[in-house]
Amino acid sequence: MRRLIAVLLVVILSVATFESCGRYENGPEISLRSAKSRIVGEWHLADLLVNDKREQTLFDMESSSELTFNDDGTYLYNKVQSVKFPQELVGEWSFGEDKTELLLIQRDSINGDSERMYKITRLSKDELWLVNGSEEYSGYDDLIERHFEKKQE
Which member of 11, 49, 70, 100 lies 3.0 to 4.6 Å from 145 by CB, making a disulfide possible if both were Cys? Predict the structure, then answer.
């Protein structure tokens, strides 16, 4: 009887463990690190896709962009779309309920605060892929996916 209970316990724990694996469309399948420990740090833009195709013009505009997530739930986004008009966006970040979405609340004392939700399609210790709609660029009616790589310490 004890053996049966032990076997059932192992099966239940295994199912629960593998249910949480594969959370993100593009991996990783399994991670021993929490989502928060993976996302905290400094990231630089490595690629930009529109409808799964590289968009060179937009990438060139944003290629110097850097995104920093702090452990205290704040972020800093140095979004460089032109040398003349770099943007330093600051605010708070948090995960959605199942950690497949990332909410950024941009703090702006002049224009008011704004929220933007991103879908996380990959979150590893050194890669972060975020997808959002095209509301930030006129002329693009499709999904924009940004691939970030973590800066090496």
Answer: 49
What are the pLDDT digits (tens) for 63-72? 888 999 999 9
pLDDT at position 132 is: 86
Burial class (CB in 10 A: 0-12, 13-18, 19+), 60: exposed
Closest C-alpha to 116, from 87, 149, 77, 142: 77
Would you say 96 and 114 are in contact if contact means Cβ atoms under 8 Å apart? Answer: no
Beta strand residue intervals within the chain, DSSP E: 41-50, 53-54, 66-69, 74-80, 86-95, 101-107, 114-123, 127-132, 144-150
Buried b (16+ CB within 10 A) or exposed e, 6-38: eeeeeeeeeeeeeeeeebbeebbeebeeebeeb
Query: How far is 114 from 16, CA to CA, in rounded Å?
Result: 37
Helix segments in the chain, DSSP class H: 2-19, 35-39, 56-62
Chain centroid to CA 44: how far? 12
